[in-house]
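2024-03-11 09:14:02 DEBUG pipeline.ingest accepted 1 chain
2024-03-11 09:14:02 DEBUG pipeline.ingest length=210
2024-03-11 09:14:03 DEBUG pipeline.predict start
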Amino acid sequence: MAPIIRPATKADESALSNICLLTANAGTSAKHLHSHPALPGLIYALPYLNLESTWGFVLDDDGEVVGYILGAFDTRKFEESAEAGWWPSLKAQYRPLLEGSDAALTAADRTYINTIISIPRASDAMMAFAPAHLHIDILPSHQRQGWGRKLIARAMDNLKENGVKSVWLGMDPKNTEAAAFYGQLGFKKLEGAEDGILGITVQEWEEYAV
């Protein structure tokens, strides 16, 4: 049976966390970089199953989740919800590890924990372009088969249905394959935003990528 795209649910948390880890190193596995492998998913995946103004879809291959696209309709609302109900418990859990001399932390662990402690807000340039943002990751076994385009198409339909006219995403600038993929779909660098921030309007998507 061919894979399907369906709404993400809280039952998908473990799968999404694993996919995030296996694609967190500029599109490749970061498993070997972490002694705390849950960290990437705690920042870039699981909040979208638990906070306000969020949405998500997964690529399901015969019961196995092999990819996802997640996002927020209103990034500022998402940030406020996370500040109130997501980051505090993670800060309490992980901050002491930075201060403990016996904690077996890798450099990547420390980077992610510091991100949790001082989570960055979306810049004015990002928000000027769009209130909405998204994340997409697919396991290597299902890449280069058209599923990335299909997941983004489902997300763009969802954004349009909810009155959102544009969206941005952030990617690791070192991930040149992802940059080429987004460029083929019509995503462009945002003026005034940091490197790796790309955006597209719903109208551009419909004219360019469909």
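2024-03-11 09:14:41 DEBUG pipeline.report The mean pLDDT is 95.
2024-03-11 09:14:41 DEBUG pipeline.predict end
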